[in-house]
Design a protein that fits this description.
This protein is an alpha/beta fold. The chain is built from 6 helices and 5 strands.
Length: about 130
């Protein structure tokens, strides 16, 4: 099984959240845990917008460690097709979704991955499996 970590999952790992650490400890050895270019960008942006100081420096170090340790998948070409379909379906149902979240969902679908996220906005996307570590 492949699991794609969303931005909040990586943030939880950076904070050593027991929920995600316990969830990861329960994975099988054959399971793959990855992230994607969109999530990487969100993490780096979130850190970069912080004012200079000790907290930012610590988060830069921690963020780089996690981003170096978790394989970053590129956005597959097929994700573009899925993005269009998901966005249209959501709009037709009056359920807008942040652009980055649309791309993360489309990337997970294209990879056949289960999305790891606490974000409830991903519910109702056809074919997208989501797990929220508790």
């Amino acid at each position: 099984m492949t699991y794609l970590l969303d931005t909040n999952a990586i943030s939880d790992l950076m904070r050593a959240s027991p929920q995600i650490e316990n969830w990861m400890a329960g994975l099988d050895q054959v399971d793959r845990v990855v992230t994607c270019a969109i999530v990487r960008g969100e993490i780096l942006f979130g850190i970069a917008r912080l004012p200079q100081g000790r907290r930012r420096t610590e988060l830069e170090d921690t963020g780089r460690q996690f981003l170096d340790a978790v394989h970053c998948e590129p956005v597959p070409e097929r994700a573009g097709d899925l993005y269009a379909a998901v966005k249209l379906a959501r709009q037709q149902r009056g359920l807008p979704l942040d652009e980055n979240d649309l791309w993360v969902a489309a990337t997970a679908l294209a990879l056949g991955a289960t999305l790891v996220s606490r974000d409830n906005d991903f519910g109702g996307i056809d074919g997208l499996a989501v797990v929220a570590p508790r």
